[in-house]
Each structure stands twice: as structure tokens, then as C-alpha cells.
Design goal:
With 468 residues, the protein is α/β, with parallel strands linked by helices. The protein has four domains: 120 residues, Response regulator (Rossmann fold, 3-Layer(aba) Sandwich), CATH 3.40.50.2300; 164 residues, P-loop containing nucleotide triphosphate hydrolases (Rossmann fold); 76 residues, Orthogonal Bundle (Helicase, Ruva Protein, domain 3), CATH 1.10.8; 53 residues, Orthogonal Bundle (Arc Repressor Mutant, subunit A). It is 44% helix and 16% strand. It has 19 helices and 19 strands. It has a five-stranded parallel beta sheet with strand order 2-1-3-4-5, with helices on both faces. Strands 10-13-16-9-17 form a five-stranded parallel beta sheet. A three-stranded mixed beta sheet has the order 6-18-19. Strand 3, helix 3 and strand 4 form a beta-alpha-beta unit. Helix 3 runs parallel beside helix 4 and helix 10 crosses helix 12. The N terminus is likely disordered.
Length: 468
Amino acid sequence: MSHPTATDLPVPTPAARTVSPAGIRVLAVGGEPTTAQALRDWAADLGAQFEHAPDLPRAARVLGTGRWDVVLAVLAEQPEDELSWWVDALRGAPGTPKLIGLANRPSMGLVLRAEELGVVDLLSLPPRRDQFQTALSRVRAAATELPIPLPSVEAHAVGQYALVGQSHAMVDVYKLIARVGPSTATVVIQGESGTGKEVVARAIHQNGPKAAGPFVAVNCAAIPENLLESELFGHEKGAFTGAVIRKIGRFEQATRGTLFLDEIADMSLSLQSKILRAVQEREIERVGGGEPIPVEVRLIAATNKDLRSAINEGRFREDLYYRLAVVTINLPRLVDRGDDLILLTSHFAREFSARSGKSIRRISDRALDLLRNHRWAGNVRELRNVIERAVIVATDDTLRGEHLPEEFRGEAEAMPEASAGGLATLAEVEARHITRVLSHTGGQIGAAAEILGIHRNTLARKIKEYGL
């Protein structure tokens, strides 16, 4: 399986659309006259076309007269059976309208049945205007979103994890893994939370001379300082209150393998000095013990902090830094990885589809817009969680905007309004995208031009042209 090239991937669109229910055709069936009148008024305010059929015979005649976007069906005595009947009935209706159910105090069973049948929404009676508008917006969004096939992805397996990506930044990471892996050199991996530091550490281990040995990971920030020394070096029986048996520490557990110390910058200076001695002397002492214990361990450390700044501030030992950082690997942020976003999305969609028994093969253009415009503070880990959620709530083979968290749609609505009736001109789109890239590079024209794929002189001209 070959990697997709950049030209195979969907072209990024800088601004996500806000979807309005205006123009949608709505047929309501059943219910009290007061409910029908409220729905009619709300639909008129939203610019939607509305008609009410008081019973099924009238509804059948109206459905046959034209194409309807959505049917609002009031459910009565047997709501679950009625939902199933409506779903089957609408499959043969012109335009295959979507179904929204209205029920008195919907039960958990009814909600689950609606999800199973792919019903757009299930509203409580009496309906609320905001819920009605949200449901119609979902129908309109689904109708206007263009499905895009997810690209095939060849991932490099790292145990239960995988390395995915073809951006220049990640290719540089792959090269360093290939070069440092066969050695026994200590490595420092730097990167924001969620960029995949442990996955890279495991890849180095798997491609090294100690691959047959254990890979032992310790999150130094997750263990209280007074317990971390014992966790790393172990302790003898009676070393302190509660030490009722001897404990083997992580250094010994990792013998003839790799010890991965995550968030090492959170470690105290006193403990850093003991790590330094273990690296230099290749031996440790258990807490409460006096005998040196040889350890044959490859050490890989990781941090989301700038270690050189920590050294300057007196929070990290300079001698330990130089002992550890024989090779330093800097992991890029997700927003710096370009089309790796869609490759990772495809990988995670297939991973979670297999787990849930679904077959997600496409993503809508709107969902892709929303993903591209998100800031991704949690990087790849955040993306993984978002796609897992989207796969869970998806009802067919396509990930849509409505499947993403509400905050994503809020970010899109907060973007500056475009001209020409809500559609941006090409110049407006280009100006907004250049502004975001310049913000990302801190105003550095050379770096921004490289990201945009244009000459810096061209970028300088566009900055002047758009008054940026």
C-alpha cells in the first residue's frame, strides 16, 4: 500500500461554513394544533417551508406531491414501533426525507432505538424553538456537506500504537529514529503534550539492539516526589514506614531493555543527581540499601518543556542534560504537520471503525474544515479522542460536522463573516489564511512563505496588497 501524495489529499479551505435551515422543506405529521402552529411560526422565522398533515392519509398524499427535506413525526402509544415504520416508509418517498421524532418524555430505550435507526433527532413534546432549529440545521448541514473519500494510510506499527504522517517535519523524525535506533545512545525527546513522545521512544527501542528486552515507561510528573525515588530505584524491606517487603525499581525492571522517563523536567534537582549517577556509573542503590546494583539499561527521556530554559532558571541540571541529550528529537505540533491531519484522521477512523463494527470510509468537507481550523492544543492525542467520538456517533459511512464536539462548530461561527451573502471571495480567503500562517510563525515571512509554498517576495507583495 503506497502513501498518498499531497495532491491526493483534500485542498484545505480556510473558513468553515455556518449552516442555516433557510429554504429547507418541512412536513409535520400529527400532533396538537397548538404544536403545529408553534412549529409553523418557528419555521417561518428560520426561512424554512412548512406544511402540517394532521393524520397519516393526508401525510401520504402530501409526501407524494413533491420532495421534502425532513418529516417531523409526532409519536403516540407505541413510539419505538412508529419510529421503525416511519424509517421504512420514508425510504420510498421522493427525495428520501430525513426523520425527526417528537415524543412525550422520550425514554432511554426510545433514544437508543432512534440512534440505531439513524433518526436525525428525537425531540420532547412540547418542542422547544432552539431544539427545533438545531435539528433543522443538522438536516441542512448533512444535505449540503460533500463527502470526501478518506485516503489510504500506511502506518508504521509501534506495538499497539502507530506512527502516521508524511510531512517534512515527521520525515525528519523518522530519519533520526532510523539513525539513533541501532545505537545505545541516550535520547531526549521534546514536544508538546500529545505529540507522541512515548510512541517515538518505543520506535527507537524496537529498532535498537535492546529490542528483545523490556520497554519500561515512567511518567515522572504522575508520581509524587516522595515516592518517585523508590519507584525508580526500588527499596529494601524496612527502608521506611510501610516498606514491608523489598521492591524492585524501574531501573532494574528495564535491565537489558529501555527505560523511558517521561516529563523528566518535573523531577527534583536531588533526584536528578541520582539519575545522573545511574547514567554515569551504570549502577543504582535501592532506597535503604548500601550495595551498588549494576544496571544495563538504555535511557530515553522526554519533556514538554524547554530544557535549556529550565537550566538557565536553575530547575534542571546542565550536566544531566548533556548526559541525556546525546541525540535530541523535537516533535512537531499537529498544526505544523499539514496534511498529516487527514492521514491521522483516516488512520483513527479505520481503527475505531474496526472496534465498533462500523465502516467509516469518508469525511465531509465541512467536518474537514472544522478539523483544519481547530487549534489542537492536545495535538495527536486530542485528534484521536475527537475521531473516536465521531466514529461512535456516526450513523453511516461518513464523518460529518455534527459528529464533532460542539466547541468545533462554535469556533467556526466565531470566525469573521464573509461578504457576498456569506460566501468569501478568493481574496478574502487568501488574506485570512495568510494571516493565520503569519500568526503561527510569529510574523516571520520566510517561515510563512515556506509553509504556504510560495516565494517570500510573493508573500511580501500579498501582505502589502491585503494590508496585513
